[in-house]
Amino acid sequence: MKNIRKALFRDWPGCSNHGCIVKPDKEIGTNALCQCVMNASRGQLNILQGRLDSVITATEKSTDKTIGQRSGHDAQTLSGDL
């Protein structure tokens, strides 16, 4: 999950809150919710949207490939049982 976070929020500075979703590992900070996405500029949000689309597309392709491999394996198993 950390790799996905790094990919999505690459070049974002994060905030000083312990609840920061951009840079969560802080020793010193405030006890508030992250405001990074809410305070992001339109440009930052457009970049984030593009990165999210890339992650979703890659995940869907990976899932489809895994399902296809499993279905093929199941078919081979069934035909071997006949």
Protein described:
The protein is mainly alpha-helical. 57% of the residues lie in helices and 9% in strands. The chain has two helices and two strands, in the order H-E-E-H. Strands 1-2 form a two-stranded parallel ribbon. The chain is elongated.
Oligomer: single chain
User: What fraction of the residues are assigned to beta strands by DSSP?
Assistant: 5-15%
Through-space gap between termini? 42 Å
Main sheet makeup: 2 strands, parallel
Shape: elongated
List the helices and strands and how they pair.
Layout: H1 2-8, E1 17-19, E2 30-33, H2 42-81
Parallel strand pairs: 1-2
Pick out its properties.
single chain; two-stranded parallel sheet; disordered C terminus; mainly alpha; 82 residues; 57% helix
